[in-house]
Design goal:
By secondary structure, this protein is an alpha/beta fold. Helices cover about 45% and strands about 20% of the residues. The strands form two sheets. Strands 3-2-1-4-9-6-10-5 form an eight-stranded mixed beta sheet, sandwiched between helices. Strands 7-8 form a two-stranded antiparallel ribbon. The longest helix has 24 residues.
């Protein structure tokens, strides 16, 4: 019987997927027969990658998606295929760096009410990520960067208004299915906050954060871009609108949020931090965009 199904959605991820899966088996601390790995590829073509994966891992489940429906839709395809009661959502650029499965699974088996289980996100084996979890964009935008930074620094997770980073976390398949899985109308970004608060609304604040368990998310080389920030803002506005929150209110709060980030970037410029000038320019562009949408 499978205890854990790991879902990995890929898109032209040949450069990441092999090391990702290798790290899973390297630090697997449960019997191999209790673990299944499901790769759902959203790329137009994946024959070479799938052929290599089949050669290396005979029991792996490989699904070439019928279309690129986005991150959430791809995960839903994998979750519906999963046979274990606990699912781990994992990005292909994540690396497991210590045994984590047994501890997380035991937590779910001890507490049937547990919805999701989060871990500490690292940028490298020795460098912590600034965000293992984040604050809801529903709270005052001026406060979000400060609260998120301080709480992550001291590992203070409050499920009332915080949610785990979406790159790697465990979730109860039954509870996830009950709330309807990922919203497939949302192509990308904002999913983790959406599912967190849908779970919370349905089952209460049954979430566990364990900072002693860690994983590496290789995001150091990702440059900030206006296109990515815009997508995140627009996705959040869409997901909030489902809850009856007017889009104008969401964009207005994002103006506050990015103003605080701009102030932090100016401080970095004083200390000659790399890319601070570029980041400041992008943040100004995002603020202008949010103001323009808010005013329409």
């Amino acid at each position: 019987m499978k205890r854990l199904s790991i879902i990995i959605v890929t898109y032209k991820s040949d450069h990441d997927i092999y090391d990702c899966i290798q790290s899973v088996w390297q630090y697997c601390d449960i019997p191999s027969k209790e673990l299944e790995i499901i790769v759902v590829d959203n790329s137009p073509e994946c024959k070479k990658m799938f052929s290599t994966l089949r050669e290396r891992y005979q029991d792996i489940i490989l699904i070439h998606n019928t279309h690129n429906g986005g991150y959430g839709q791809g995960n839903n395809v994998g979750i519906r295929q999963a046979s274990a009661p606990i699912v781990m959502i994992m990005n292909p650029d994540v690396r497991i760096c210590q045994p984590v499965f047994k501890t997380a699974l035991n937590a779910f088996e001890r507490d049937n009410s547990l919805c999701t289980y989060g871990m500490k996100q690292m940028l490298s084996p020795t460098v912590k990520s600034p965000l293992s979890f984040d604050c809801s964009r529903r709270i005052n935008g001026y406060l979000i960067p400060f609260v998120a930074s301080i709480c992550n620094k001291f590992d203070i997770f409050c499920p009332t208004f915080m949610f785990f980073a979406g790159s790697c976390f465990f979730i109860s398949k039954e509870k996830f299915e009950e709330i309807g899985l990922f919203d497939e109308e949302n192509f990308m970004y904002g999913e983790e906050e959406d599912i967190h608060f849908r779970l919370k609304d349905c089952f209460g604040a049954h979430f566990t954060y364990n900072p002693s368990l860690r994983y590496i998310h290789q995001t150091l080389e990702r440059p900030m871009s206006f296109a990515t920030e815009k997508k995140m803002v627009d996705s959040t506005a869409y997901l909030y609108a489902k809850k009856g929150i007017p889009a104008k209110k969401t964009y207005h709060n994002f103006v506050r949020y990015y103003r605080t980030r701009l102030f932090n970037t100016y401080l970095k410029k004083l200390f000659r931090a790399p890319n601070a000038t570029t980041q400041a320019a992008i943040i100004k562009e995002v603020i202008h965009y949010c103001r323009s949408v808010k005013s329409t």
